[in-house]
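for the recovery benchmark. tokens below, seq after
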């Protein structure tokens, strides 16, 4: 089982100075993650989602991290791939350049960038997002390995060379963001690794693992975007770990409340996030907001997942290192290939993020490495 971290570059009460600081803080956390034995860092790409995600140029962030590290894998989790955001050849060129500079450490995840806010900034139509993401992935499967590449689909490309070529042969591993069972099935059919939200807890992750595995078993291979399918499932794991377990739980649930309110604001038309004050009962607030959001989505006939029960579940790897080990044991039993730690949430102080990374590196990760060696 692998261990990774994911970065949204979240912050409450954003100002230009605080925004700059949080981005540098994320770099510091990523470098520390390598020192502490993590296998990979992921960075999202989002646009114009104030407070929720200020990681608009993740390829630059990941290049900066790659330059300061030597071993940890560098993951785009994810690139927004509809053509309005960026031409697929440009994505292929940037990813290959980073693969060369990092010595073959790049992973590429695909996403739709399907919030109304993001699509309005780039002129992307909702109905184009799914087909264009799939087409972009098919383009990558060919562009990185053909000396003279051309493509004629909904977009015409070439002929010409897509340069440079990546170090990884034939190309970096491909993934897809999966927040629904339908996208899990699609990822399996296309031969893509799955990056899944784990906010709803281990039981929900177990169901997602089952859906993904059943789709893998049932597929024919006809829809693969490349001849190198990737059946790797990475599950999100919100976590704050300190010697003071109750303090870690308070800080973690406060951070998760901010995250939940921010994602509900941009994805579910909820109010702007407010859960930033340390002295509030954030667990109770999560429960209240869950009930309110589910009711509102139901009334508006909006599919509830992923902004309902998932983000408002407070039972995660919060507490001491032993609490985290207990939660990760459940994920290991489910068959999760990678535990993707969400530590950098909008209200979690930098010193707490760094201490959490240290606790995982010194206690949690070695516990499971030892289990793997014995197995």
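predicted aa per position
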């Amino acid at each position: 089982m692998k261990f990774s971290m994911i970065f949204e570059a979240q912050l409450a009460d954003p100002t230009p100075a605080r925004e700059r600081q949080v981005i540098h803080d994320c770099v510091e956390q990523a470098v520390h993650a390598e020192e502490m034995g993590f296998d990979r860092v992921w960075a999202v790409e989002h646009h114009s989602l104030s407070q929720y995600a200020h990681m608009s140029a993740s390829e630059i962030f990941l290049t900066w991290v790659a330059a300061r590290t030597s071993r940890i894998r560098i993951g785009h989790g994810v690139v927004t791939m509809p053509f309005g955001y960026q031409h697929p050849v440009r994505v292929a060129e940037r990813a290959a350049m980073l693969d060369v500079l990092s010595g073959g450490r790049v992973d590429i995840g695909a996403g739709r960038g399907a919030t109304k806010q993001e699509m309005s900034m780039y002129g992307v139509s909702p109905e184009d997002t799914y087909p264009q993401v799939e087409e972009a992935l098919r383009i990558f499967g060919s562009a990185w390995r053909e000396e003279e590449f051309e493509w004629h689909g909904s977009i015409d490309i070439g002929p010409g060379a897509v340069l440079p070529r990546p170090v990884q042969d034939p190309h970096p591993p491909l993934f897809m963001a999966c927040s629904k069972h339908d996208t899990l099935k699609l990822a399996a059919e296309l031969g893509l690794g799955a990056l899944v939200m784990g906010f709803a807890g281990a039981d929900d992750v177990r169901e997602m693992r089952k859906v993904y595995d059943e789709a893998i078993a049932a597929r024919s291979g006809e829809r693969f975007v490349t001849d190198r399918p990737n059946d790797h499932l990475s599950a999100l794991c919100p976590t704050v770990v300190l010697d003071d377990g109750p303090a870690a739980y308070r800080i973690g649930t406060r951070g998760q409340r901010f995250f939940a309110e921010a994602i509900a604001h941009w994805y579910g038309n909820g109010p702007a996030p407010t859960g930033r004050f340390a002295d509030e009962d954030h667990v109770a607030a999560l429960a209240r907001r869950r009930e309110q959001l589910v009711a509102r989505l139901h009334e508006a006939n909006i599919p509830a997942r992923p902004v309902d029960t998932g983000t408002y579940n407070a039972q995660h790897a919060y507490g001491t290192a032993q609490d985290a080990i207990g939660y990760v044991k459940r994920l290991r039993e489910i068959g999760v290939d990678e535990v993707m730690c969400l530590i950098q949430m909008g209200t979690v102080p930098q010193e707490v993020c760094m201490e959490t990374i240290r606790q995982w590196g010194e206690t949690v990760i070695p516990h499971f490495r030892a289990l793997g060696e014995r197995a």
